[in-house]
Amino acid sequence: MSLKDIRGVPVSYSDQKAIDAMEDAHICAMSFYGDPIGRIDKVLSEHPDFIMGHCFKAAWLTQTLETRIYKRMVAALSAAEALWDKANDREKGHIKAVKAWVEGDFYGAVQQWEAVLTSYPYDLLALQLIHLTDVLLGDVAGQRDCVARVFALWDEDMPGYEFVLGFYSFGLEENSDYLQAEEMGRMSLAIRPDNPYAVHAVSHVMEMQGRQAGGISFMRDRAPSWSKSHFANHLWWHLSLFHLDIGQIDRVFDVYDNNLRTPHQTVDKYEELDAAALLWRLKLLGVDVGDRWASLADKWEPSASDTLYAFNDVHAMMTFVSDGRTEAAQKLLTANERYIDHATDANTAMSREVGLPFCLALQDFEKENYNSCVDRLLAVRYRTHRLGGSHAQRDIIGWTLLEAALRSKRYDLALALANERCALKTTSVQNWNYVARAHKGLGDITKADKAAARAQSLMAG
Ligand SMILES: [Fe+2]
Question: Which family does the record assign (predicted)?
């Protein structure tokens, strides 16, 4: 006998309690609370023939993008495949999607989940996986459009609507539709005030619009709830970006030391990613970060030759070059060079087009080969979305380029790049400081003083 889930989507299993328990695990995954895998494992131990349960587990494990979970993902997929003959069309679609993923065809996985969603527009798991994978792959339009294709069919009476609003909010934000993005994010928070993904989407809107003071109070007001979620590290990082942008370096260190510096290896990569991204920004500003790189490099070193996800590799490289770990840096470069010569998975193109050039540029920066760093980054700067992540995360590439342009004394280029950043975000102290430095390099002290004064007044404000 087949039943349906809470949204009326068919499930080829006859125990409603198991289906409801999977929904609880899914809510944990969408709201970044609790242990979704632990919950579904408990369900599966009592219901080993629950196909959709295995599909959920395998699908959710895809999102960690770490080699250490790979075996568990493959085992969950095998368990689902063993039940293929009993699976309905929807479940077969989920199985095919994870199978494509395991084979390294991330784009194929998205297509399979897309086909499921087209037939079952209330399949919230399929929608979530398409959206999140599009973020990982840097498919910017896809992050928004996967939600747009089903959104008109949803309303607030449908369970999970607040999560759909959160996905839509982030997708709209990444496509620069800030007004609608903020509206969707705040609608989500009206239904579920502790939805970390919606907090995240609204904070991205504020980041892109340069609303630093508003961003700080928005994040701090809501911190009592989101700081308990599994998304907390990344949200602390967002808070630190607002402080960084207006020159509050002490606050940035507070966030780093209290929230991004767990002494032991963390269970997910977010903390290490965000910690590296934050320290590199401080390095670009010439701030002494003490011994912080060393403990972070210890965490990254075991995955130096993973070649699993280019986005991870560039952050690993930031820590290796900054902590003087030339062996680990070389190991990462060699592994990537071999990998792009032989592999055919979806990450290969990401590594070839952006990951490896950026890693080499980081190495150049550390060796003070600033001209080479500039040339490498200029060549890829409008392709960097292929690396995955968000505009706010990839901003580190443009920022590195600008700092390298200044240090290589290519002041006309530096001024052009600084002006570009100011046009996009006019409230950033850092951006005006860059304009001032570029004018100074070109010998225009009047304009340099004017830009520096603008930075000072923004800092005072
Ligand atoms: Fe973010």
Answer: Belongs to the TTC38 family.
